[in-house]
Fold this sequence. Notes:
Layout: E1 4-8, H1 13-25, E2 29-33, E3 54-57, H2 64-74, E4 78-81, H3 88-93, H4 95-118, H5 122-127, E5 129-135, H6 159-178, E6 182-187, E7 189-191, H7 200-209, E8 214-217, E9 223-228, H8 229-242, E10 248-251, E11 256-258, H9 259-273, E12 285-288, H10 303-309, H11 317-330, H12 332-339
Parallel strand pairs: 1-2, 1-4, 2-3, 4-5, 5-6, 6-10, 7-9, 8-12
Antiparallel strand pairs: 9-11
Amino acid sequence: MAKKVLVTGGAGFIGSAVIRFILQNTDDCVVNIDALTYAGNLESLQGTASNSAYTFEQVDICNKKELVRVFSEHSPDVVMHLAAESHVDRSINSPSDFILTNVVGTYNMLEVAKAYWSNLDKNKQDRFIFHHISTDEVYGDLEDGELFTEETPYCPSSPYSASKAASDHLVRAWFRTYDFPVVISNCSNNYGPYQFPEKLIPLIINNAIEGKKLPIYGAGDQVRDWLYVEDHAEALYKVVTKGKLGQTYNIGGHNEKKNIDVVMTICNLLDELIPLADRSYTSQITHVEDRPGHDKRYAIDAAKISRDLSWQPSETFESGIRKTVLWYLDNKEWCVAVTK
């Protein structure tokens, strides 16, 4: 049965990938609510505006009155809550924005969605689900050989990860206290098309082709598990349609890489695709002082979602990073537009 899916933060990097996946692969309708802050851009959803299955509402999740209106007017069957401030460096410099959006905004979403759900008829109540999309950063650091599981204790290191941990706890509390139907997913580092160029991979690609320095924190030995964003979008749809209420699903790409190796891979691809006459792009690499509280290693055990929901990532890091570099080379105007 086709559903109406309310997506928060749908003009952002992961949210726009989710919307594109739903519209291209299902009969569902989508209502996208996004405040259109610096990292949200409707150019990431080119072609969807004319789709009769798509509606956009410019709404901030901190505006409770507007959220009530959106739920009342659109009557969603499912909520996929992705709206969040997500850049660790920004959270260190301006934590208040992260507390407001990630904690207070999620509280508003839970309260408005719960009030809406409680007034639905029994059949629609039974179909309703609130999917909260979170991050593996809530778990903190890992030692070599260890993996994050759904039972790993929370130990956030930055204002960003602490705000996401708080929102996860709120969602679980609404399930436990009010029997409000929720699922949670925690993902590893995403990369791919339409990512705002403040994150590592698009920053390195754009800086490289502009002849700028390629900054790497410390020695660049921090390890991340990389997940191609379109694989993540497919996984999120499986969670919201097939996940068990009250459960958490970790989503990872099985691609652990040191940051320095990611940057070297990008440079090597650019050397192949748009070579410089006199040098390698690696000559632009610059090591800078490490940021405070920088976690050394993340890695996800995605066995549960593989076993219970039959999801596996389609892209290896090698295939996904090539697609990503090619996309940024072909879409320089998008980068110029969003960074303005």
